[in-house]
Amino acid sequence: xxxxxxxxxxxxxxxxxxxxxxxxxxxxxxxxxxxxxxxxxxxxxxxxxxxxxxxxxxxxxxxxxxxxxxxxxxxxxxxxxxxxxxxxxxxxxxxxxxxxxxxxxxxxxxxxxxxxxxxxxxxxxxxxxxxxxxxxxxxxxxxxxxxxxxxxxxxxxxxxxxxxxxxxxxxxxxxxxxxxxxxxxxxxxxxxxxxxxxxxxxxxxxxxxxxxxxxxxxxxxxxxxxxxxxxxxxxxxxxxxxxxxxxxxxx
Length: 251
Hints:
- This protein is α/β, with parallel strands linked by helices.
- It has 9 helices and 8 strands.
């Protein structure tokens, strides 16, 4: 069965002075999830916010009642040591913890203050996230080939397989960048091989680029400025959803 269309506006483009209210309003306008961009100034050059802010906005958006349900906080962890922060973000209200493949060969420490010489790896990190009763996502930068995911997606142990793959269609770190159509062959390859996989695209998505992403097979759509900067955000969310739904099951 083809995965459903999921629209996840990126709150990086919201008004930070009224962030909780903006998140609440966006859900009322038809969003399925909220995409929460966490940047540490190390893995990417930008800094956004941490777990305390996520905990505050969680009070404005009801927790999902089912896996992948409405209100899911899709936390995109653009951070150098992702394992250290899993428990903190779970406490803050994260539902899906999406780390970068490129950062997954880092410290195996389980808290920000802990230190160890042991290293984690993508499969171990996915298992660890699942052990915290969170959904696990794995993200790829544009420079990383999609073939690195084969061994992970085909692990015989389901606890080592991600619930979602995120293909970046911009370089991670800043909002408002131009869409990189060059990354869509990764989406096509994944969709052909894994028809039931949740495949997310993030970067430069909006009414002018959604059809390309949907044609490639993406079903989880992140859009920041295209939603939060629109005169009618509900109309944009509806348009993004319709583009994906028109192609569901036809790929």
